[in-house]
Amino acid sequence: MFDNLREDAASSPFYEEEESAKFQPAAATKSFFATPGPSRRILGMTGLQRFVIAFMFFIAVCLVGGMALLVTGKIMF
User: Is the pTM value of this prediction over 0.70?
Assistant: First the structure.
């Protein structure tokens, strides 16, 4: 079953795409900091998407903290 696994993997199109996508140095005139704002994304997300995730994390922390205060008896209704 696994006799020709290495040869099959070497002849697959996915492997050939990796070979053709070799590292090419950037042009000397371009700088990392000179790129426009919309193309500089963190984790591939826009600013609004990052804000929504941060807000959801904030709400989750507030809920867990409130539940912990209720369970320990520090606050009561």
Answer: no
